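REQUEST ID: PR-0412
SUBMITTED BY: lab tech R.K.
PRIORITY: routine
TASK: structure prediction, single protein chain
INPUT:
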Amino acid sequence: MRKLKLQVQMTVDGFIAGPNGEMDWITFNWDDELKEYVTQLTESMDLIVLGRKLAQGFIPHWTAVAENPEHEEYLAGVKFTETPKVVFTQTLDESEWDNTVLAKGNLVEEINKLKNQEGPDIIAYGGANFVSNLIKYNLIDEYHLFINPAAIGTGLAIFNELGSKQKLSFVKSIPFECGIVLLNYEPTRD
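STATUS: complete
OUTPUT:
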């Protein structure tokens, strides 16, 4: 079975965005070690799952990056553009993006269907509501939480929809020179 890995930027006080989706607190001056970690994480997958709200910014951004060989993140743009994507939505009727399909069914069933397919791992990116539901239904197999050196006091959180306690097993933490700290966990499955 393929693993579903979550990669998300967070504040030290547990938010993935400000109250209105602001992300101006994210550290962008990544050091080489952090870039290499993220490259290895993304190279180990062949499918991206996204919520509709994030997809509307994520997909056009990386498509534009992939069209500019001079861009410093060109290779990441190519990877994200060429990797098949599944966007979870209840509002869109057809995909407006290349290499992207829509999932409109039951989240748990759709994710388990993807996880049961042959192939490398799957990576999940937000938004907050989508990721909250992945966590709520215990669908994440690996957490890669990138804690940024910022606190914003209020905002969009991903752990506030839990119906019950979920235990996590520590895998590793890595402090990076740019101030971001990776916290890597796996769910403790009984």
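NOTES: The chain has a mean pLDDT of 94.
REVIEWED BY: pending
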